[in-house]
Amino acid sequence: MDEITLRLMENLNEHWALGKVPERLKEKIKREKFHDIIKYLDERQIITIVGLRRTGKTTLMFQTIEHLIQKGIMPKNILYFSFDELTSKSPEIIDEIIQHFASNISKSGMESKERKYILFDEIQKVENWQAVIKRYYDLKYSLKFIVSGSESLLLRKKTKETMAGRSFDFLLTPLSFREYLEFNGIKVEKGAYKEIYAKTIAHHAKLKGMFEEFLLRGGFPETTGMDIHRLQEYLYESVLQKIIFSDIPSLFNISNPEMLVKIMELVSKNTSQLFEIGQICEVFNISRNSASAYLSYLESSFLISMSFNYTQSKVKQLRTRKKAYINDTGIANSLLKQMHIESREYLGQLVETQVYNEISRRHPTLFWRDKMQHEVDIIAKNKKIIPVEVKYRATISQGDIKNMELFMKKNSVAKGIIVTKDLFREEKSLLYIPAWVFLLSYETLME
């Protein structure tokens, strides 16, 4: 192994000498995903963590190392390595690192039954990494692999083929509203929507204000406390540009990445709105295949999500109009240079986007639109179907809910949710709930 890699291993594993992870590497606040991941540390299967750049995957890995040390795992039985800085992309580098670690750091060797934990960050930088990790897994060495990466295609599609049944996959998204509050010093315990509403009654105005701030700023952990100008500069330069001009071109043969920026701008302006592929072709004078490919690249990189029509026919789902959602509203605002959200229509789009993003993290999520153009914003599918309509306005009329009632009648659905600005009211079949309360109590609403 070359000197550069050896030195990098030493620099990245300060816990070997200190017996703990340095404070600067482990954010005190733990994401909700951390508590999900540590449940699987004793399982043999590989843990994969994927998500957008700068959502905290590296911090999550260092928090996991600290958790292992606190559980009694010897620090020198834990290896962390990031492939982000290595020039070598050959899969042999993984072999060299593992062998050196087992023989010279852990010193128990590969045949030892003493479990060793190997955390590989940005592993997609190494060619054919799946085959190497699969080989070690299938040989049943006492190794627990935790790997992370930013691009879903490398960690999802190939993993399904190469590591079927060998991995647990976790998606690390931008902060939820609950996490955003916690990162800003406000902790709201989980609970049912009535309980949350009652317990926070003295702080409703503040929480609503924080929600609208969340719509503007988005959910990237490192932007907490940033001035809005600096935040938008950070999102554009450190997240969006690196994904579009570095990550995506490294995966695909793209001659015009600027087109991705243009499509992102279009989706940002129209997040949560219906669209057809033909519209993109017409606006940018590109072929249908090119438009579909560009959308696929953006979706695979976690920048956007696509929603399809609620219908029994999968063919119709693909042929009919779709909805596109920005996966982080802060990115949309940085692209559009929105320092303030003044348009009521655009504010409503951002609210629906956040509601969709929250639901789709846990459940299959569609929308409904029939031939008569009756529409319901979001159809959440769990053990039951729950339609969700977003009406972020001061007043809501009977006409605003007629499509919801029509969908419920046609599909024999007993419960629907109207996400509002301030209105909190429960009827026999409809729950009117403020958007910020919905985002803090969504888990119980789907039960």
Report on this model:
This protein is α/β, with parallel strands linked by helices. It folds into 2 domains: 3-172, Rossmann fold (3-Layer(aba) Sandwich), CATH 3.40.50; 177-445, no CATH class. The protein has 19 helices and 14 strands. The protein has helices at 3-12, 15-18, 32-37, 57-70, 92-105, 129-138, 152-162, 177-183, 193-199, 204-217, 228-251, 258-269, 277-284, 288-300, 314-319, 329-336, 344-360, 402-410, 435-445; strands at 46-51, 78-82, 116-121, 143-149, 167-172, 274-275, 304-307, 322-326, 365-369, 375-381, 385-391, 416-420, 425-426, 430-434. Helix 18 (402-410) links the parallel strand 11 and strand 12 (416-420). The protein is globular, with a radius of gyration of 23 Å. It starts with a helix and ends with a helix.
Largest sheet: 6 strands, mixed
Q: What is the arithmetic mean of pLDDT?
A: 92
Number of helical segments? 19
The Rg value, from CA coordinates, equals: 23 Å
**SSE class:** alpha/beta
| Distance between the ends | 53 Å
Low-confidence stretches: none
Shape estimate: globular
Strand content: 15-25%
Q: In what order do the strands lie side by side in the largest sheet?
A: 9-10-11-12-14-13
Helix percentage range: 40-55%
